[in-house]
Design a protein that fits this description.
The protein is an alpha+beta fold. Helices cover about 30% and strands about 25% of the residues. Strand 1 and strand 2 form a beta hairpin. The longest helix is centred in the middle third of the chain and has 23 residues. It starts with a helix and ends with a strand. The chain binds 2-oxoglutaric acid and fe (ii) ion. Belongs to the alkB family.
Length: about 260
């Protein structure tokens, strides 16, 4: 099966990409980053059942891949230079982000292929069977905006839906520390929807999702438009299976596409 998937990837994407320019350092950098490619590996995607369009790939990057990605990010100097904790890039993404975006495309492509070849029951055959539906997977570029965030222990992000100027299909990669991200349905005009989907009593329930280091979240459709996401790292909120999570500095990379 792995060989079959490798051939399939080569057909769809060609051999792993070369760096641009002949410069030696650039070439070395690009070789390192090729380690981000999933060639030869099959990743597991997990659908979060309560939230349509929310997918998690826990083993998206290996520890080695996480370290080389972190050093590429650090070389940008964004997060230390101004001692800021957020850096944004539009348009031409740095090489490492292009590689990351390609790896996401490959991993989703493989999952499409596998779900088709596995003859899933009909109820799973719709768009919802996919971490990204085909129309999002094949748009060009898949992503053209990136945010790198660093959070010190205790720091998080308030509940929000990402701005409407971003298209559907958002990816979040977690590095350096695990955290629990909570999802809650947006209020206002969605009360009917909420009653139908979640039941009256559980309407305000938050759904926790554990984002381990190296994991990738994909949100599209309902998960992107109807659910808020937040990370509360205040004491007492970062619990998983009854245990408080050991909090370290956390870095995340969010990839989106402008409308
Ligand atoms: O840091 C994260 O994991 C989430 C970031 C986020 O939700 C955002 O930038 O919109
Ligand atoms: Fe967000």
């Amino acid at each position: 099966m792995e060989e079959e998937v490798r051939m399939l990837l080569q057909d769809a994407f060609g051999e792993s990409s070369d760096g641009e320019g002949g410069d030696e350092a650039q070439e070395r950098k690009s070789q390192d980053l090729n380690k981000l490619s999933i060639f030869g590996e099959i990743q597991n995607w997990e659908r979060i059942d309560q939230i349509k369009g929310l997918w998690l790939c826990r083993d998206f990057l290996s520890p080695d891949q996480q370290s080389s990605l972190l050093s590429a990010i650090q070389k940008e100097g964004w997060l230390s230079e101004f001692s800021g904790n957020q850096a944004m890039r539009f348009g031409n993404l740095p090489q490492w982000a292009i590689e990351l975006s390609n790896s996401i495309k490959e991993a989703v492509f493989v999952s499409h292929y596998l779900s088709e070849s596995r003859n899933l029951p009909t109820r799973d055959k719709g768009k919802e069977a996919y971490p990204l539906p085909p129309e999002l997977l094949w748009r060009e570029p898949l992503f053209d905006q990136l945010i790198a965030n660093t959070y010190q222990p205790g720091e998080g992000i308030c509940a929000h839906v990402d701005l409407m100027r971003f298209d559907d299909g958002i990816a979040i990669l977690s590095l350096e520390s695990s955290c629990v991200m909570h999802f809650s349905l947006v209020e206002d005009e969605l009360s009917d929807y909420r009653e139908e989907k979640a039941g009256k009593n559980s309407s305000s329930a938050k759904i926790p999702v554990l984002l381990t280091e190296g994991s990738l979240v994909l949100m599209w459709g309902e998960a992107r438009y109807f659910w808020k996401h937040e990370i509360n790292r205040k004491p007492g909120f970062q619990k998983w299976m009854g245990q408080e999570i050991d909090q370290r500095k956390r870095t995340s990379i969010t990839l989106r596409k402008l409308c």
